[in-house]
Design goal:
Elements: H1 7-21, E1 24-29, H2 34-45, E2 49-55, H3 57-67, E3 75-78, H4 83-95, E4 101-104, H5 109-117, E5 131-138, E6 145-148, H6 158-174, E7 181-185, H7 196-209, E8 217-222, H8 224-228, H9 230-235, E9 248-250, H10 254-267, E10 270-277, E11 283-284, H11 292-309
Parallel strand pairs: 1-2, 1-4, 2-3, 4-11, 6-9, 7-8, 7-9
Antiparallel strand pairs: 5-6, 5-10
Helix pairs in contact: 1-11, 2-3, 2-11, 4-5
């Protein structure tokens, strides 16, 4: 496949996949929000997804009515005991093979994630680190940027960062990026023993050189400017295939990653979506503040990634 260079192209590719193979099934925990229904309707009408919804049926019916949706187009599992039970019901649909993707509705994030991590029916894959990845199409750039981890792992060590890179590389591969360039971010582009992020970056670069992290090119440390600007890299005489050409931006910790992600969203003209990856299936963790378009694009990404995981 050709490299996807925008999120509109991602949506088109999801439509292409599902036109050939049928829509992916998404299990949504506590699906009783009209805004969520708007995004689900967009995905359903685009032909890329069908949905199994858990929660109180009366509240789901009210949300569907408010969004102008026909509940006959959805499979509903009536569940009124607790948010925790709604999450377990939804994640079990995925772990049992009845659904392909696990998605958050109007429940608290902690309950949603507890379902994902449940030892009996959850989606943890061995000892692998589960991580979050945002992906952005920013006006003025001819490719997507992946930012990880800005939402899930707070202060990952080197081993966890290696897993986070592997997860995001697998996602980038599903977007047609054959050998993504990974920039390990820090405040400076030189290894400084007093700055742990630079030490981690050097270790991850060495792991990549020794084939412990495959399918990509990893280098660092990089300050943000010389990771994304070839001119900046040239001025600072940084000789690296990643310098100025990074696809994946590995944040040193959640504070830096979260600030970078939100700076992109609020300070640039962009489209943004995100997924939890590294589990046995794609996981859509959206915010109530996300627009229906952002939720649709996250669903499209999950559809594309789910298809790649089965190849």
């Amino acid at each position: 496949m050709e490299q996807l260079r925008s999120l509109s192209a991602l949506l088109d590719y999801a439509k292409q996949i599902t036109a050939e193979k049928g829509p992916k099934c998404i299990a949504v925990a506590k699906a009783d929000d009209p805004g969520l229904f708007e995004a689900m309707e967009d995905a359903r009408k685009a032909g890329i997804a069908r949905f199994t919804l858990t929660g109180e049926r009366a509240k789901i019916e009210a949300a569907a009515k408010a969004a102008g949706a026909d509940l006959a187009d959805y499979n509903v599992i009536d569940c009124s005991a607790s948010e925790a039970e709604m999450a377990i019901k939804a994640v079990t649909e995925v772990s049992s093979g009845k659904a392909d993707i696990y998605m958050k509705g109007q429940l608290h994030t902690a309950n949603f994630l507890r379902g994902m991590l449940n030892k009996e029916v959850g989606l943890r894959r061995g000892k692998n680190t589960i991580s979050h990845c945002f992906f952005h199409h920013i006006k003025g750039y001819d490719h997507l940027f992946f930012v990880t981890d800005a939402a899930f792992n707070m202060y990952p060590d080197v081993a966890q960062k290696a897993d986070i890179i592997r997860n995001s590389v697998q996602l980038a591969h599903s977007f047609g990026i054959e050998c993504p360039k990974v920039a390990c971010l820090a405040a400076v582009e030189e290894v400084n023993p007093d700055m742990p992020a630079t030490i981690d970056a050097a270790a991850l670069t060495a792991m990549n050189n020794r084939k412990q992290i495959k399918g990509c090119i990893v280098d660092g440390p990089f300050a943000l400017d010389n990771a994304v600007s070839e001119k900046s890299a040239q001025i600072k005489s940084i000789d690296s295939p990643v310098a100025g050409k990074a696809d994946i931006l590995l944040a040193p910790d959640i504070e830096a990653g979260n600030a970078l992600f939100k700076a992109i969203v609020y300070f640039s003209e962009n489209e943004t979506a995100g997924l939890i990856i590294g589990a046995a299936a794609p996981i859509v963790l959206t915010s109530r503040a996300d627009s229906p378009r952002t939720k649709l694009l996250s669903v499209a990404a999950a559809v594309v990634f789910a298809d790649s995981l089965k190849k």
